[in-house]
Specification:
With 88 residues, this protein is mainly β. Helices cover 8% and strands 27% of the residues. Bound molecules: FE2/S2 (inorganic) cluster.
Length: 88
């Protein structure tokens, strides 16, 4: 069963499509544009709060300056590991 992706600010709830390689491309496909510069998890420009759920990120260098316990993720390199709610 596909995970459910909720874009809280946009009021959209959509099933994850495993053909996408990351949440940024998936958000854009759903009409939600994100800032991005590197698209490889390094610059941090795309970071967004994960309000619930879990994601996997192969790279998270772009979050190095976040304080401990932060809830930010990098959509350009993140894929969902559960149902998630994003602050987007
Ligand atoms: S676009 Fe650079 S970390 Fe996502």
């Amino acid at each position: 069963m596909a995970y459910t992706i909720e874009f809280k600010k946009s009021g959209k709830v959509v099933p994850w499509d495993e053909h996408f390689e990351n949440l940024m491309d998936f958000a854009e496909e759903n009409g939600i544009a994100l800032e991005n510069e590197c698209h490889v998890g390094v610059c941090g420009s795309c970071k967004v709060a994960l309000l619930s759920g879990e994601v996997f990120m192969e790279v998270d260098d772009g979050l190095d300056e976040e304080p401990p316990g932060h809830n930010k993720i990098l959509p350009c390199v993140a894929i969902p590991k559960s149902d998630i709610v994003l602050d987007l």
